[in-house]
Amino acid sequence: xxxxxxxxxxxxxGLGVSITLAETALALLTLHLVWRLRDPAARAAARxxxxxxVLAFSAVSSLSALLSGHSAASLEAAKGLLLVAALYVTxxxxxxxxxxxxxxxxxxxxxxxxxxxxxxxxxLCPGPDAPEAGPRWLYHRxxxxxxxxxxxxxxxxxxxxxxxxxxxxxxxxxGELRRFGVPWLVMLGGLVATYTRxxxxxxxxxxxxxxxxxxxxxWVLVAGLVLLxxxxxxxxxxxxxxxxxxADPEEAGVRERVYMWRSGLAMxxxxxxxxxxxxxxxxxxxxxALPEAVKKRTSHVHSAPLQILVERGVLGLAAxxxxxxxxxxxxxxxxxRLPSEAAAERTLVVGSxxxxxxFLVAGLSEHNxxxxxxxxxxxxLMALPWAVEKREKDPSP
Length: 397
What we know:
With 397 residues, this protein is an all-alpha fold. The protein has 19 helices and no strands. The chain has helices spanning 3-17, 19-36, 40-45, 51-66, 71-77, 85-93, 97-124, 136-139, 152-166, 177-193, 197-213, 218-233, 237-244, 252-270, 280-288, 304-337, 343-362, 372-383, 385-393. It is globular.
């Protein structure tokens, strides 16, 4: 196996079990790509998906940081932009639909391991009043599944992305139910056990995206969502309560988010064009927190687009939205060009499309774009349609 193959395997494993492993492997993959670009043939073959809007967003973010009045701290807070390297190293390493399928299966295995750990955490949790016993990763904060991550929202975001990316492979006519079926159900159980409503809503949006774009199995998908909702109504109290109060404005979590959104808009009005700079919410929020809000300090306002608007202004939000608009435009155009018999290629594109649709919908009520583990998975999945693009342009392996 090549050096790049070993590093890619480590990166995929890290996406499910270790942020340190994932970021280290990503850095080495990036250096490997840069080194290979010394060769004119490698430069000619290189692909840079979505580079115009990504470059625009990076430029606006840097400008916002430099003009924020806290340039050093803001530039430090903007370092998450470097994770976009995951998009480019994946596009470089995953060169065709078969490689993309192997990549997705590896990512599924990594996410399944995280889901199993999350289910064990919830299933073996001794309760909030019992003393911790055994390994900390298993019993610490075990009321909601979080796997190897520090918080349940991260596990929920990762599982939702992988579930949606692989969902089309379970549908009739694709022929991959045996390979992906059991891991998929385990990941679904892990997602439920996080009790993360934003991720649940994003997952539902992604399922509907698959139903809208796949010719076969769409009614199976809709029926599956109905069954999941019915199961939530019959579930134990905590799960049923989380489900029934998702849209209740008087529920504590929903009410606190509304307070944060109002404070976020107040911050944005102070500097509407370029915002208060990356990382500015953590610095400025105490001055804008509403008297009735429980949380007087926070680093984010529980909404990815609002966070972008507050910290990078309307220019930053426009550039950020342009990334997703360009991605969806490319994927939809690709689906229109692919023949109906190209099941493997269509499945790959639809899965990526659904995963990012779910990611964006979930981001309306949580700042998942600021979650390094989640956004790395999102960037990698966004690269997969370019494997189809390469096959479409050059049928040779």
